[in-house]
Amino acid sequence: MTAFLDSIGYGSWILHVLVLLPMAGVPLILLAPERLAKHLAMVVATLEFVLSLGLWWHFDPAAGMQYRSTLAWMPQWGINYTVGMDGTSLVMVLLTTLLGPVSVLGSYKYITRRERAFYCLLLAMVTAMVGCFIALDLFVFYVFFELMLIPMYFLIGIWGGTRRLYAAIKFFVYTFLGSLLMLVAIVVLVWKVAAVTGKLSFAYDDVLRHISAAGDAAPWLFGAFALAFAIKVPMFPLHTWLPDAHTEAPTAGSVMLASVMLKIGTYGFIRFAVPFFPSVALSPAISALFVVLAVIGIVYGALVAMVQPDFKRLVAYSSVSHLGFVMLGIWGLTLQSVQGALMVMIAHGLSTGALFLLIGMMYERRHSRDIAAFGGIARSVPILSLLLTLVAFSSIGLPGLNGFIGEFLVLLGSYGRYPWATGIATTVVIFAAAYLLWAIGRMIYGRLDKPENEAIHDLSLRELIVLAPLVIGIVWMGLYPGPLLRRTEASARQFIEYAQPGRSSAINPARVEVQP
Amino acid sequence: MNAIDLTTPVGIAKALLPELILAGAALVVLLVVAWRHRTPADSRLAGWLSAAGLVASGAGLAWLWATDARPDGLAQMIALDSFRFAAGALILVSALATVLVSLHYLEREGMLAPEYYPLILLGTAGMLFLAGAADLIVLFLGLEVMSVAVYVLAGYDRRNVFSAEAALKYFLIGAFASGFLLYGIALTYGATGQTNISLIGAVLGVGAPSLLARMGLGLLLIGLGFKVAAVPFHMWAPDVYDGSPTPIAGYMATGVKVAAFIALTRLLVEAFPSLDQFWQPVIGVLAIATMVVGNLIALAQKTLKRMLAYSSIAHAGYLLAALWPGTHLGASAVMLYLGAYTLTTLAAFILLGSLGRNGERAVRFDDIAGLARRRPWTAIALAICMLSLLGFPGTFGFIGKWYIIQAVVASHQYILPVILVITSVISAGYYLPVIMAMYMREPGEEAEWHGLRLPRPAAWVTGIAVVALVVFGVLPRRAIDVAVQSVRQLARTEIPRAGR
Fold first, then answer.
1. In angstroms, rounded to a whole number, what is the distance separating the alpha carbons of residues B319 and A497?
2. Hey, which end of chain A has fewer CB within 10 Å, N or C?
């Protein structure tokens, strides 16, 4: 496989193609007739996924950052389009490209008006997300980070539920505030580094190498980065945009939002915030703050999820809880906990994506997302019920399914450093079981007491195809996580190495005037 | 390089080529309309003649720029540097767009009085003088020529009481501001014995600045502060923009602002660099006040035109922030942002002009609900303008804002950029509802724009502007290079300073 891929020069063009291909689909869809829009989008998204699959084999688990490539953009300002990929990027990119065709196919029936615009926005979002995960230039990362907002804003605002306008603007303003402050931090950081090196460069490596130049400003800069990413994750108490955005978004929007966009927050911590400012991020006060907030997020998300009458909102709050585990794992700073955090990111992407798709399918049948609107549907729709149960189990963290691996590793790896926090987080797994089991118990099992639920039909072939890759991923990752762990190990080690406090106090800043 | 001897009449004529062509064109158009001013066709003729005059003037400017014209010796009255040429190009673009849009607008609104086009040409000539002034007297003359023409244009819709109010308000406050400016010029002359901007810089660079010089600078800042509508001198701007005919509002929000900001930049960078301890706090406070007040009040607006008026105040705040460092980098940020702002605001006002009648004062956010369905091209153009004003990546507005942040950060100032981005987030609260109304809501029963459309020349102008916004947003290298090169010849006396 690798030999074949090498023979077509796969490594040299794949990252550029992955970014450009979805975007190239946009004019294609705009020019084609409206009824072909979804099929074209499906073709483009599937092609994107198939192309990205090669990375799984071609990627060298032992090496660090690979597939580096640089194109000049604004070289006089040290801004270049630099991309590259390590294990973390690899799994996130694959998750994104997998969810592309899934959410396109999942929207075939759900979206009935302005289809062209819908699929264009969905593809544009894939471009921005892939770009975010592979950008190795702070400016480029920022641009992709922002570009994600607009498609999502329109997806929520045009095809969303009844309170869509409110949810859309809330989502936008929250994330925009965080990211703009990060832009200022990026510029400040780059100029501070330039004062030492004498050369303006937004390149990730240059900044990382001379990060000690940040000096006294480091806490402020970390604060700006952390705020941007914490809003995206979202960490308690910055999470309030999430339930609204999730609940109002159309299914594909929810899937993309939960499965990929939230991960960009945690990815940002792993890639930028912590490696840049380890002495701030891991200082006792700040790490205590983040661990406490992570645990509050875990507990709070689970407790609030328990009382939601709306199943979609329940899943949204469960995301807050799951992402708390990721944050705990990042701050745990052991190989297990960091790899566990990455596993939770992937597992949450698969399970929550599947949950949102299933909710969307149920909504298409009953036009309600209320748990109370269902009951005993296992009799009328056995396949749907079976899959929903399976996915719920994976989300709970049942051993043998994907959710378990990550949470277990996080708890194992973080225990040494934060025994109390880990202890509390462990008990919450019980809550997670409670809210999901309780909800699906009321929806699926019991008596089929509502006549309108008797007539609903079971999953169609298309819907099975939509769910199949996610379900296969859930089971496969639960039973055999070895390949994933092997591919992320090097980058997890690299992260831990970067995150050693005091790593970077060696270079003595000398003032050099910068004249670009 | 094309060295021009400014002591000979031929040399001066060469140096003033764009202005002379423009003034000549104004006179020709004035003569033509003296005989032909009865039918819409006559008005159109005057419009096309004016457009031709602007293009000819632009050709003159391009010749100076392309041959890299430089003064042979000291620039006595008029600057010959790329800073003037780049600003002149922006001003001419703004004027040309205004003329092309007015062709149909005047007919639609029944404003066929013939003086409209000559006034635009004269006002534009004034702007060119203001932006190119190397001497305080020329600066004042340019400002007055520009202002008098624009006062009349603001009140051009005679039957509209708001237009009359706009003109009167603008005139009274403008006269007041001119008084400040003139007094400032007098005091500066008193302190230095010079009216030439570079010579003032040279004189002030030696020894401690006198109280007189500082007072002169303060009064100059107030005078120009009125013209750029910086808070707290902004009171006139919303009413004036709101009451003026929409193309004129666009012209004022762009051309006047470009000219005044260029003059202000030249003054601070060339004449008063040695007083930066004195003016930096003033500009900083003005910038913060303008950003905060402009954005917050814009948030409360219900009509598009008033929102755009307050948004243009907010953008003056961003530009003041760019002015704060007083460095070449800061000056190039001013130039770049003026470019982004001019293109975006022009396009936005032109689009607004096709969404209502009677000066478009009544177009509320609710009225454009569902615009994307009926007029998709107008909607997407307006959406891109809003994103550019917001400073969203992928648009020219973002490049401008990033560059301002960079220029200010390079001078080790961190409060201004933080306030800049926070107020930008606030601005999402009024730019996004425009997009929201157009795309996310259903069309209403009867909206004024139902019977209207964007006529041909205006559509070209908007199309070009919007495409440029995206192109410069994605591939900004050329635009940044122009901005950087435009400030190279600004004579800034570097003041070495300890403790920075």
1. 43
2. N
For residue A234, is the peptide bond before it cis, meaning its omega torsion is within 30 degrees of 0?
Answer: yes
- The better pLDDT of the pair A351, B493 is held by A351
Contacts (Cβ under 8 Å, ≥6 apart) of A21: A44, A47, A48, A51
Q: What are phi and psi of A333, to 5 degrees?
A: 60, 30
Distances from the Cα of A367 to the Cαs of A166, A258, A360, in angstroms?
Answer: 21, 22, 9
Dihedral, A493, A278, A406, A59 alpha carbons, nearest 10: -40
Cβ proximity of B229 and B312 under 8 Å: yes
Give tens-digit pLDDT for A84-135.
Answer: 998 899 999 999 999 999 999 888 888 888 888 889 999 999 999 999 999 9
Q: B419 — contact with chain A (CB < 8 Å)?
A: no
Nearest 5°: phi and psi at B494?
-75, 130
| Least confident residue range of A72-76, A301-305, B354-358, B463-467 | B354-358
Structure tokens at B397: 């507005």
Report the amino acid identity of residue A86.
Answer: D
Q: Which residues of A touch B410 (CB under 8 A)?
A: 191, 514
CB contact under 8 A, A173 and B481: no
To the nearest whole angstrom, how far is the Cα of A480 from the nearest Cα of chain B? Answer: 41
CA distance A155 to chain B (A): 10
Which residues, in sequence order, are CB contacts of B211 under 8 Å at separation 6+?
none
d(CA A459, CA A387): 10
Burial of B42: CB neighbours in 10 Å, binned 0-12, 13-18, 19+: middle
Amino acid occupying residue A423: G
Per residue in A184-207, pLDDT tens?
A: 999 999 998 888 888 888 998 888
The pLDDT mean for chain A works out to: 87
Who's near A138: CB < 8 A, 6+ residues apart?
A186, A189, A190, A202, A203, A204, A207, A272
Summarize pLDDT for B151-185 with one digit per residue, the tens. Answer: 999 888 888 888 888 888 889 999 989 999 999 99
pLDDT value at residue B448: 67
Q: Which two tokens stand for residue A348?
A: 């949450």
CA distance A313 to A55: 35
H-run or E-run covering A395: helix A382-396
Is the peptide bond prior to A275 cis by the omega test (within 30 degrees of 0)?
A: no
Rounded average pLDDT over A303-329: 89
